[in-house]
Design a protein that fits this description.
Order of helices and strands: EEHHEHHHHHHHHHHHHHHHHHHH
Mean pLDDT: 78
Distance between the termini: 50 Å
Shape: extended
Radius of gyration: 30 Å
Number of strands: 3
Helix content: 55-70%
Length: about 500
């Protein structure tokens, strides 16, 4: 059989080099399904039948993909290439090579054996037809006639099947149907004279063209899905809820705990749970308000709590499982921004405003800090030592270049020490920045993005571009989920 491609969800536009089409469940969808399955096993009153379980998994998969298309603007399908040294990769490559070698033997025999070639032509025809738009009826009829498999079988039986002629016809169709990005690949195919290598190349490029069509369809459907996604997700989630009445148990626990955190006086312990720490990032309701917080405020605080969710906690809210990976990534970005801001503020306190009035210099420090922070999670102290060395050196050099007083040995040592201290979670600068970032995000949910940007926190101005971009992502994602969650409870 010809090599067929594996497809995966991607957030970038890197083009795979090999493979044509074999759908594969996305990693994120697998995690969502696993989480729901784990929760379902613990909470449902009776075990689902195998049929019901398969249907549930299929519904979750559909729901996850539709949700991903709407909330992820970079969502697209792309080929996945197996690692060449992996066992699976070696096995698959051996199988593919055996198939193409067998085809070569068949076509080279006397008389030629067209059995495998006909199977290939049938698959080529199906792919070409799948690339047509609904209005291309005349071209569809032409392909059906030119690649009539029954007629081609008769020609093969009489030894009259003209593979080169059919290949040239297919190449002309590919030139007509391919996206501009594939023009060069199709052009190169025309120079191949070996019929087996040509068919192999045709399959590879057709696979890429089919993926182009899938991504074109995704882009075309996105506006429609955005308009109707809430109703679709609500309906699908309600279907799951009808099958599993306890499906919202973890969501209820999450909101209940959030409400308790908001109305319970803050603990004096610095080691209180993460959700309580997040709740204290804003004034405590029990102290500052005679009335209980509204359900909307509880929900917004709950969303912020998710940014500090324990990765080992299995009771993640069911209504947000599809965004768990996305929220985990946002949490990581927020942590990096807090550390980056802390570094810049400490550095500015030692060098004055003259250096930091230069956008070029600030961006240089950002670039250095981000690059050296790549290993922060596993080796925070070591990473911050590197940051302190580089940042202090750049400040020293810049002050000298500007004719200003360079850092003394004592000041340089003090600067390094304060920068290295940022590696500690209890660092006062880092904690304050962390709280201000969370307050900004909460303000985005409460007041809206536009108003929050007009009143941007002065202490975070050095990361305004980065935080604004992340704020929009968080705002749009949470507002989308808010609409879906509201209806889930209304139902």
């Amino acid at each position: 059989m010809p090599k067929m491609e594996k497809t995966v969800l991607q957030n970038d536009s890197n083009e795979a080099e090999n493979g044509t089409h074999k759908p594969e469940t996305p990693e994120q969808t697998q995690e969502n399904q696993s989480c729901l399955d784990d929760h379902s096993a613990a909470s449902r009153p009776e075990v689902l039948s195998v049929t019901d379980l398969i249907e549930t998994v299929n519904e979750i998969s559909k729901l996850s993909i539709a949700h991903e298309i709407v909330v992820n603007q970079d969502f697209h399908m792309e080929d996945s290439v197996l690692p060449p040294n992996s066992l699976e990769g070696r096995i698959m490559e051996t199988m593919y090579k055996a198939f193409w070698d067998h085809l070569k033997v068949q076509l080279s025999s006397t008389p030629a054996d067209f059995t495998s070639a006909l199977k290939l032509l049938k698959e080529v025809k199906e792919i070409l037809l799948s690339l047509l738009l609904p209005r291309q009826n005349s071209l569809r009829d032409e392909i059906e006639e030119a690649l009539d498999i029954d007629l081609l079988k008769q020609e093969a039986e009489h030894g009259a099947l003209d593979v080169p002629h059919l290949s040239n016809y297919i190449l002309k169709l590919m030139t007509l149907l391919c996206a501009p990005v594939r023009n060069e690949a199709v052009r190169k195919l025309k120079s191949i004279t070996d019929p087996v290598q040509l068919l192999r190349g045709i399959f590879h490029v057709l696979g890429l063209m089919k993926m182009d069509m899938v991504n074109y369809s995704i882009q075309s459907l996105r506006p429609y899905l955005k308009e109707h996604s809430i109703l679709y997700e609500r309906a699908k989630f309600q279907e799951l809820l009808n099958k599993q009445p306890n499906l919202l148990d973890c969501t209820i626990k999450w909101l209940t705990k959030t409400a308790l955190d908001l109305t319970t006086p803050p603990s004096s312990s610095p080691d209180s749970p993460s959700s309580s720490s997040m709740a204290r990032s804003s004034p405590n309701w029990a102290v500052d308000n005679p009335q209980l917080p509204s359900s909307t405020m509880v929900l917004y605080q709950g969303y912020l709590n998710l940014l500090l969710w324990d990765l080992d906690n299995k009771e993640f809210p069911e209504t947000l499982l599809m965004d768990r990976i996305r929220l985990r990534d946002m949490e990581s970005q927020l942590k990096q921004l807090a550390i980056l801001t802390s570094v810049l503020l400490v550095a500015r306190s030692f060098s004055g405003s003259a250096l930091f009035s230069s956008t070029e210099f600030v961006n240089k420090l950002k670039h250095i800090t981000k690059a050296l922070m790549e290993g922060f999670n596993s080796r925070p102290e070591e990473a911050m030592v590197s940051v302190s060395e580089q940042v202090s050196q750049k400040i020293h050099e810049r002050l000298k270049d500007m004719g200003l007083t360079a850092l003394s040995s004592e000041k340089k040592a003090s600067l390094k020490g304060q920068l290295q201290n940022i590696a500690k979670k209890e660092n006062c600068v880092r904690r304050i920045i962390d709280q201000r970032i969370h307050l900004f995000l909460k303000g985005c949910l409460v007041r809206g993005m536009q108003e929050s940007l007009l009143d941007f926190p002065v202490g975070l101005i050095l990361i305004k571009g980065e935080l604004t971009k992340l704020g929009w992502k968080f705002f749009n994602l949470m507002r989308h989920n808010q609409q879906r969650l509201t209806l889930s409870f209304e139902l």
